[in-house]
Amino acid sequence: MQNDQLIIENTITYVKKELLNAEGGHDWWHIERVWHNAKLISQTESVNSLVVELAALLHDIADAKFHDGDEEIGPQKAAFFLKAQSIDQSIIDHVEQIIRNISFKGGNFTTSFYSLELAVVQDADRLDAMGAIGIARAFNYGGFKNRELYNPQIAPNLQMSKEEYKKSTAPTINHFYEKLLLLKDRMNTSTGKRIAEKRHHFMEQFLQQFYMEWEGKG
Ligand code: ADP
Ligand code: NI
């Protein structure tokens, strides 16, 4: 138990250092929020909590979006770090699988890997893309990519392939319809679903207000 605590602390130090210059939506604070969400969701699931915590902490250690689309760097970097700690190989393998499968979400890549620990960390990560924080992150990412906030002449594209999605320069509001509002129905756990409902409702209210202000209606 004490050893687990030490491993978590070493991991936090490592992740903070690695993400020092990360973009605002993918920085240490994103990781800390996902870690907290994952611990909350775990309270109502029977999971290996070391696996959940390590995967939450390491899940964005090298996001493919910022590494020329290379989806393998993240899982490999995480495994390399964990091998230097005194951890069972089975735990390292499991964490590596979770990171690999979290980042392949929504793509054409099909995988047979599933575990309850993956379900928990995926929900925790998805929650951070919703609600007030999700809105803030979306506009931060859009700003980082120099996108328009909104453009009434550019409709959301609900049929985008993963490649098109990566290259898209669509306004940030479109991202709500292409991804953020779809997350509620993709949650895995009961706690995840409950929190997602609230955050979804908040995003809908935000959009209503946004269009009202856009049209100068008060
Ligand atoms: P995660 O950190 O959960 O793996 P992503 O890497 O897909 O999620 O996205 C990180 C954040 O950036 C999310 O909050 C997401 O909404 C936002 N984001 C990703 N793509 C876009 C986009 N095209 N427009 C606006 N925000 C985006
Ligand atoms: Ni993430």
Automatic annotation (TrEMBL):
It comes from the Bacteria. Residues 27-130 form the HD domain. This is HD domain-containing protein. It comes from Xanthocytophaga flava. The lineage of its organism: Bacteria, Pseudomonadati, Bacteroidota, Cytophagia, Cytophagales.
